[in-house]
Amino acid sequence: MRNLSAIVLAAGKGTRMKSTIPKVLHPVAGKPMLFYPLNLLKELGARKVVAVVGFGKDSVKAAFPSDNLTFALQEDQLGTGHAVSIALKHLKGFSGDVLILSGDVPLITKGTVTALIKMRGGAKGPVLSFISTVLENPSGYGRVVRDKNNAVARIVEDKDCGPLQKRINEVNAGIYLVDYDFLSVNIKKLGKKNAQGEYYLPDIVEMAVEQGRKVTALTHIDPYEVMGINNRVELAKANKLMRQRISEGLMLSGISILDPDNTYIDYGVKVGLDTVIYPGVRLSGNTEVGQRCVIEEGSIIIDSSIGEGSAVKSYTIMESTKAGKGVSIGPFARLRPGNLIGDSARIGNFVEVKKTSIGKGSKANHLSYLGDSIIGAGVNIGAGTITCNYDGVKKYQTIIEDGAFIGSDTQLVAPVKVGKNAYVGSGTTVTKDVLPGSLVITRAPEKVIEGWSKRKMKKG
Length: 460
Ligand code: UD1
Ligand code: CA
Prior knowledge:
By secondary structure, this protein is an alpha/beta fold. It has 9 helices and 39 strands. The chain has 2 domains: 4-226, Spore Coat Polysaccharide Biosynthesis Protein SpsA, Chain A, CATH 3.90.550; 248-440, UDP N-Acetylglucosamine Acyltransferase, domain 1. The longest helix is centred in the middle third of the chain and has 21 residues, at 232-252. Uridine-diphosphate-N-acetylglucosamine (UD1) binds next to strand 1, helix 3 and strand 10.
């Protein structure tokens, strides 16, 4: 294989997205669109990768802080050809092939790009090859015009097509492999006498043909793979396709997804063998689910890990939480960021947990708020327990040591500590530290006034 460098075009505003953020930062399965071509180039081992940025350059750069990536700045977006000419300044002295990808074509696979590279063959191969596909509705794409021998003659942009050309179904995917020397000489010759007044990169195809150089197209690639995202309808389609790809990959590796069309798993999420995922589940960001887990319908899990053999029951929301093995969480639990849930712990319905660690086997089964707390092992948190962690100015910590029993309807006014094996009676407001092994109870004396209701009724 010849030396390989790459250019990724990502400077455009993406006018058709109608957005304040650059098009290439719109997410597809949880990653900015531009992540996919860059990741592919990493996998291909490209020697140098130049990303052309312009619109929203600072946010694009910030999203990809990598040493192996060079950013070329295209101040004014004068067209894809202009973008490449700017990128080439960073490739001076290179010898070999340049792979050009679009930042808005995220579904392209390694297999297809590898086939394009293979098409190039050795030094005697085509000076330029590109990917084309056949679309039922080719509108918006550059059309591949072929001569009477069916050889590629040129690419004509949608807006420059005459009525006959408009009917051509073979379109340019915007992915090219070009000899560096050819590209650097010819990019300077591009003109902008066209409907959009832009320097069109695809014009190099016609240049090569006119110079008698060999040009080939890798055709009949799955149209979905080379779909360019220009508006939000296409963005939604690409998301659907990427998610389908992710779900199928997981299912084939031994994970059950009951309704893949209605399951939303981000790129990079890891799921262990024999885990079952119910409909409507969203697994996002840096999430890892262990083996033999069950994630029930409607649960949203973001940047979290869950150990093997655990159950996340319906409609649980879990964010930046690390849960151990054999835990049971939900239904209807809300885990806000910063929790550590020990093995075999149980978090039940309507329990909210934040910045809290819960020890092995501890239980908070119903209706509680546990915030900024350190809870030991074997603790029982009764229904309606509230850690009062905020005094309107600052947040304070609650510590509950191993084996403590917190009765129902308890308020723990932080900072406060409940010692090992201590017992808090129901309805207690704990304001002072509780010594290990002791009982604490605050309760207004119970009064019974006989016949009270009857008397009240008469008066009324
Ligand atoms: C382009 C091709 C078209 C092809 C289609 C495939 C051109 C002129 N046309 O059209 O033949 O069928 O892709 O998806 O190349 N960009 C820059 N700087 C610029 C202009 C664009 O970096 O000055 C970037 C964009 O951010 C985008 C990519 O280049 O990532 C493609 O540009 P876009 O405007 O989407 O081109 P298309 O009209 O889709
Ligand atoms: Ca495009």
